[in-house]
Specification:
The protein contains 8 helices and no strands. This is HAT C-terminal dimerisation domain-containing protein.
């Protein structure tokens, strides 16, 4: 559940930043503890509780059957309309590819680091270098996406 709450916080923070009049300034000022973000996260959690309890439309047998047969994003689009925050978050989460490519990339970087320095480096140091490499990779992607948003 902790991971889910972190996803709610990050996506709600992103939504608050993008909805502000000045996203560049909001990017620097807003945090997950900002009142607007906290209120949005609380609403998302309440909506998730409705889904988890199978209240309302989620208790119908046909809805449960369609959950097994439909694409997840289409199912949320059809049955999640009364939960606006959760139905906005679900497609973003479900659109993420479930692949081993990130792990393979980490192992590749780890192999390059260990290969270059042989056995002189401890595993902890190598792990920290892989983390730094990936953090720089993510930072580059984020800065590129912000650049693309401004010029699109």
């Amino acid at each position: 559940m902790e991971g889910l709450m972190i996803v709610f916080e990050r996506l709600c923070l992103r939504d608050e930043i993008m909805a502000s009049a000045n996203p560049e300034q909001a990017w620097r000022e807003l945090t997950t503890t900002s009142p607007g973000v906290v209120a949005r996260v609380a609403q998302a959690e309440r909506e998730f509780a409705v889904y988890q309890r199978r209240d309302g439309v989620f208790s119908r047998p046909s809805v449960l059957e369609n959950a097994k047969n439909m694409e997840p994003a289409a199912w949320w689009g059809m049955y999640g309309k009364h939960l606006p925050l959760l139905s906005a978050i679900a497609p973003r989460v479900l659109a993420q590819a479930a692949a081993a490519s990130a792990a393979e990339r980490n192992w590749s970087v780890y192999g390059q680091i260990q290969g270059a320095h042989k056995s002189r480096m401890s595993h902890g140091t190598a792990d920290k270098l892989v983390f730094c490499h990936e953090a720089m990779h993510v930072q580059k992607k984020v800065s590129m996406s912000r650049w693309l948003v401004w010029f699109s």
